[in-house]
Write a structure and sequence with these properties.
By secondary structure, this protein is of the alpha+beta class. It folds into six domains: 99 residues, Phosphorylase Kinase, domain 1; 199 residues, Transferase(Phosphotransferase), domain 1 (Orthogonal Bundle); 64 residues, Trypsin Inhibitor V, Chain A, CATH 3.30.10; 63 residues, Trypsin Inhibitor V, Chain A (2-Layer Sandwich), CATH 3.30.10; 61 residues, Trypsin Inhibitor V, Chain A, CATH 3.30.10.20; 60 residues, Trypsin Inhibitor V, Chain A (2-Layer Sandwich). The chain is built from 18 helices and 31 strands. Strands 1-2-3-4-6-5 form a six-stranded antiparallel sheet, with helices on one face. Strands 7-8-9 form a three-stranded antiparallel sheet. A three-stranded mixed sheet has the order 13-16-14, with helices on both faces. Helix 4 runs antiparallel to helix 11, helix 8 packs antiparallel against helix 10 and helix 10 packs antiparallel against helix 11. The longest helix has 25 residues. It is elongated and about 180 Å long. Its EC number is 2.7.11.1. One of its GO terms (molecular function) is ATP binding. Keywords: ATP-binding, Kinase, Membrane, Nucleotide-binding, Serine/threonine-protein kinase, Transferase, Transmembrane, Transmembrane helix. This is non-specific serine/threonine protein kinase.
Length: 659
Amino acid sequence: MTDDVDTQISDRLVGRVLDGRYRVGARVAKGGMATVYQALDMRLDRTVALKVMHDGLGDDAQFTRRFVAEARAAARLSNPNVVAVFDQGDDGGTLFLAMEYVPGRTLRDVIREQAPLSPARALDLLTPILSALSAAHDAGIVHRDIKPENVLISDKGAVKVADFGLARAVSASGNTATQGLLMGTVSYLAPELVTDGSADARSDVYSAGILLYEMLTGNKPHSGDTPIQVAYAHVHNDVPPPSLEQPSIPPYVDALVQRATARDRDLRPTDARVFSRQVHRVRSALEEGLPDDPDLTGDLTVPIQQIRQDSGYDDGYTRGIPTLEHELEEQPIRHDTIVVPVEDGRPTGAPARTPPPPVKAAPRPRRSRGPIALIIILAAAIGIGTAAWYYGIHRYTTTPELVNMEPAAAADAAAKAGLKTTTDNQDYSENVRAGEVMGTDPAAGERIRKDGTIGLTVSKGPERYRVPQLVGLELEAAQQALTPIKLITGQIKEQYSETVPQGRVIAISPKFNTVVKPGTAVNFAVSKGKRPISVPDLTGKSYKEANKALRKLGFVVGRSTRYDEKVAEGNVISQSPNSGTLFAKDKVSLVVSLGPPLREVPDVKRKTTAEAQKILGDAGFEVRVEKAPFNLGLNIVAAQTPGAGKKVKPGTTIVITVL
């Protein structure tokens, strides 16, 4: 029945034009709240991905307002790893997003086909995801729905994250939408989203950590028969180290995963940018081939927290669970219960015995234990407090503010606090001048062990690239040349060229050597080869007319002649070719008539005038008779012009002189 409904929806939308602009094409994918189609933006003549919300969502005014607001916020994101949002519209209650079309596959396909991935490969895929999230977090946008299905990998290997802001819009539309969202993405939900629905940048970090775990192992860290069981697991169970499934994974990779997926959000990296710096450190350790790095592992390890008794679900982490369980219509799940098989009212395997008769105990004098218990409690409290003070406070200080300092000045400032610095990392910054500190690890105000080391990230200044010379290259080669400098392919327009071979780049915009930001789109004009020209048939036309028409079209004209009984002199007898298409500077050959073939003049001298006229007339000539000056009246031809044996055109007048 579902397939029939899907077919009807597809049939209803395919071929339809939404908002007078987008012609809906083939369906690409279908999700819990929307269907994605390939579509043509008829206004800009480009292919887009059209995400059409399922029927009914547009009826909720609150959802519609939130949807529009979040779509606008997402459209402001400019990052090469973010699927660009071009437009948002409402066509008679049909809500849709027009987005960048990314031909390729999803991260889900990669995990399904290739996992478990090597740690290096997994981190290389995670890095552009975190780049997209960093741009969003910098703009105050939380994705809330990071999962493999929302990570697109183009045919050229570019990684892009989709659906920024959409999860927030859906979650605001009431129980139905929220339930659908939770049901679809429960494997990647941060605990706080399960318990109270709140989300911030650290929630996206948690989901990204789950992605990393799944790439490393091929499995999700938590599983259950129902979504509610998975949700419980996120709240109550730590994500296990991936090395339990893949023993070759180094300890610092385990620590990275567990730090990102800490159940207490305060223990996670504060946002995707901080998480990205940690990923960079781990990736560097992998490149060095380190089986372990105790300092790195120690920096990433989740700090030991006070042991929390997890008896039942009445703690602060689970107060939202009963409502969630009611919404999902699941049965309560019993935890922390030991089941022991029994037979005949006793545990299996336990020896049967008759209980002894009760014996009355002699009364004992009671002594007051109050002072002793109080002393013990005070001593324990002092011991615990001292240990907590030493391990939690005394050994730590806070990272000073070093941003916008030069590394040497930052090192001096850190030294005054008893800390060291390293300057292993560099990155681009739009706000911090080149050569100055743009970030620290740990960040300013975060805890760090006394005599610890602060990692400095030094600014390389604004990230800019020069557009390379791409004119004359094959389009594919030109596009590949953009990848290392973080530029993207913009519009591709094909046009005819008489000089540039088909498939090669004629022109680009921005022009060669222009300095641009990463993520700038480079537009291409690509040659379709020479323009084909239809060949007109000019047979029967005068050579002058035919020659002029063919040269005007760009052809080279070849000319030859021959006599023809039927075609007048100077007209075209035949043409090659006389149909089809050619290209400029191709040759068209014309055969031009010289008129009928020449005829030999017969000899009529010494013939009578009448005989000469008949012979010449029969030969096709005109005759004019002239009398000789000394005419004797004999009517005998004494001379003829042209003379006998000459070849002349038919119809030529032959003058005969008679005596």
